[in-house]
Amino acid sequence: xxxxxxxxxxTGVSMPLVGFGTYKLCGSExxxxxxxxxLQAGYRAFDTAAVYRNEADLGRxxxxxxxxxxxxxxxxxxxxxxxxxxxxxxxxxxxxxxxxELGMDYIDLYLIHWPGTQGVAVGDPCNQGNRAGSxxxxxxxxxxxxxxAIGVSNYTPAHMKTLLQSCKTPPxxxxxxxxxxxxxxxxxxxxxxxxxxxxxxxxxxxxELVKHPVVMEVAKGCERTPAQVLLRWAVQQGxxxxxxxxNTTRIQENMALFDFSLAAAAVExxxxxxxxxxxxxxxxxxx
Length: 287
Ligand code: NAP
Prior knowledge:
9 strands; binds NADP nicotinamide-adenine-dinucleotide phosphate; two-stranded antiparallel ribbon
């Protein structure tokens, strides 16, 4: 395996297994320095969202830095997401706004960020109608080539089932929280059966899981860092990851995953930590 290891989406397009998470990166200077370090370390995929409020800064940094690293737009894979406030009728306008904020002609992958709509009660059936409306808008922009692939995030197995039954264009990817304490067995099975790429977010448990004693022990045993162990645990199973860091050393560390592997016993030990713990938001109540 090389650092360019990738997965092929159901659109036929390749996506790097390791992408750079940008949640909480804020302000043009912080984004610029992190993107420069990420490109230098070999990251070729970047994950943002309308709600991160950094699309414009990320786009500006990439447009400025790609030539410095001998790269062009086609060399990178850019993901953004539809904010919960824009579900339904506003989806098309919001997606086009993301394209324009990024200052790109197209987005490689655009996701519905959350199954619910901001301002609508979680149990309200309107949530279902709104995300169905959003999907139709995304399908249209996909057909126009503005969104090269479309997918969803934070969907439960029930949300996935409804979408898969009604869509014209199937989702290319599902992005959810995934780490040894949240193995998402059912969602992974649904994705595998339906040819949907399953992608992890918060692989480091938002920085908390690197301090778990079992993770630290496994790391010591293979002379790697806890973060590398957590990321390798996912990529070794073919699951793409999106580590976020604003620190140059950790940005490099999180990409150095392809010159070692975890023994089967170490993988099993980590997987046995699954207790359904979520460090992030929980979509299970969204109708
Ligand atoms: P994460 O990647 O699990 O953890 C990030 C935290 O870990 C930061 O505090 C970071 O601090 C720290 N960290 C990074 N590398 C480290 C290392 N090598 N050793 C120790 N600590 C380290 O959390 P996340 O940001 O929640 O998830 C990653 C990305 O997934 C996000 O940025 C976003 O792009 C995406 N995401 C999507 C959703 C969604 O709803 N679709 C939700 C959450 C996240 P420093 O910055 O100081 O290094």
